[in-house]
């Protein structure tokens, strides 16, 4: 686990903005073990854990065999998998910058670290349940409103922190990022469906889990 966090920190040092020193990043496990409150900021690389099933939001370079045919998104049962890391990005055209804290109600994007595509949704039907399909789409220079998700923090918290219950509501469709214990049996055997549903349910609550968290940038 420690080796995995070291590799992830090295990736951040090589690929993220140079004004963030490598010593200022913190692994979630190290910070939480010290009782430190960890904010989720733009540029943070994390795994999202489905609260009810404990599966991680996951993607890989395997297209759906139905619906849009775009890159599939699933829930993955194992913690140690590099395809479950996502980079938290702002909505384009805003003044948000790396290291900014993220308030409830803010529109964000999640970029899949391995394939560089964006967490996406639309009106195509999901493969198992027939709800809204959630996929990965686009790339570094290709992103549209189908990649926009509104952060909704459960409870009294105003800014996003690790281990805080959240919902992500898709802006275009109104669907909440959702998962359940319905599993794929073939290509993604043992992985569970991730989809969008328009109702608030216990199955659309997520938490920021493992990752490398960038500190909040102090205002100048």
Annotate the secondary structure layout:
Layout: H1 2-15, E1 26-27, H2 28-33, E2 45-50, E3 56-63, E4 71-76, E5 86-90, E6 107-112, E7 118-125, E8 132-137, E9 149-153, E10 166-170, E11 176-183, E12 192-197, E13 206-213
What key phrases describe this protein's structure?
220 residues, mainly beta, Trefoil (Acidic Fibroblast Growth Factor, subunit A), seven-stranded antiparallel sheet, 13 strands, globular, disordered N terminus
Task: Explain this structure.
The protein has two helices and 13 strands, in the order αβαββββββββββββ. It has one domain (41-212): Trefoil (Acidic Fibroblast Growth Factor, subunit A) (Trefoil). By secondary structure, it is mainly beta. It is globular, with a radius of gyration of 16 Å. It has a seven-stranded antiparallel β-sheet. Strands 3, 4, 7, 8, 11 and 12 form a six-stranded antiparallel β-sheet that branches. The protein is 9% helix and 36% strand. The N and C termini lie far apart (36 Å). This is Stromal cell-derived factor 2-like protein.
